[in-house]
Specification:
This protein has 252 residues and is an alpha/beta fold. The chain has 9 helices and 13 strands. It starts with a strand and ends with a helix.
């Protein structure tokens, strides 16, 4: 089959590397791809949010499967775009539809989902510019460090972890009143800080059936001793040593 990968990062390079090894892959395309992906397939100079251009490429290259890596086009409805178009709706798209993509696209949506489904999560409240003062009041009920999260997508950089209350208030004002992270911080989720080790569990599902993929752990805060700002993640290990069968059964 002919496969199109959407995205330009290390994740998409890994997808390309692996899919190129499959005997089922006839031709592999990556839009827009990067220097690494060009080793495994053909890069197409298409923006990940230019859905019409993606459709043109899908038809021109006779694509049989689309794999979407980045969150942004999924949050913007790329999968829905395919489903609503009679010409390309039969082509499978790996990636959630817009409604489901909100789990990644909106911190508040994800927190509400976890609360509804009794999934353990940190205490939180959400605020906008209209109720900034209430945000200050909520910060005063928490113990440091204080966690501020831009509600929307901010390329992995919309989270601040601060030890000083006054600094946290100032940063909240910067995020809400001055859009420090652009539209992503028009709403901010303030969470209580949870100390500990983290990992990610990945599940591929069609809504009814599912497969649990290997676990992984990345590293967020830059600098020695986790003193710096959060990043989108630097380096990763898989499988995760502490994610034993007991833990993974609990996740499942």
């Amino acid at each position: 089959m002919n496969v199109l990968i959407i995205g330009s990062g290390g994740r998409e390079c890994t997808f390309a590397w692996k899919l190129a090894q499959s005997k089922k892959t006839k031709n592999l395309f990556i839009a827009p791809g990067n220097a690494g992906t060009s080793k495994y397939g053909t890069n197409l100079d298409i923006d990940t949010n230019n859905f019409e251009k993606i459709k043109e490429a899908v038809l021109a290259k006779k694509i049989d499967l689309v794999l979407v890596g980045p969150e942004d086009p999924l949050v913007n409805g790329l999968h829905d775009f395919f489903l609503s178009d009679a010409v390309i709706k039969h082509i499978p798209v790996i990636g959630p539809q817009k409604w489901g993509a909100q789990l990644e696209g909106s911190k508040e949506f994800a927190k509400e989902f976890m609360m509804r489904n009794q999934i353990p999560t940190a205490r939180y409240q959400s605020f906008t510019k209209a109720n900034l003062e209430q945000g200050f009041d909520f910060l005063e009920t928490l113990q440091p460090p204080f966690v501020l999260k831009a509600d929307g997508l901010a390329a992995g950089k919309g989270v601040l972890i601060l030890n000083d209350l006054e600094e946290a208030k100032q940063e909240l004002k910067e995020m809400l009143a001055h859009e420090k992270f652009g539209r992503a911080s028009a709403k901010v989720v303030i969470e209580e800080f949870l100390d500990g080790i983290e990992m990610s569990s990945f599940v591929l599902t069609d809504g009814e059936n599912y497969v649990v993929l290997p676990s992984a752990k990345d590293y967020k805060r830059i600098g020695e001793g986790d003193k710096g700002l959060n990043t989108g993640g630097m380096g990763a290990v898989s499988p995760v040593s502490f994610a034993d069968s007991t833990f993974m059964n609990k996740v499942e």
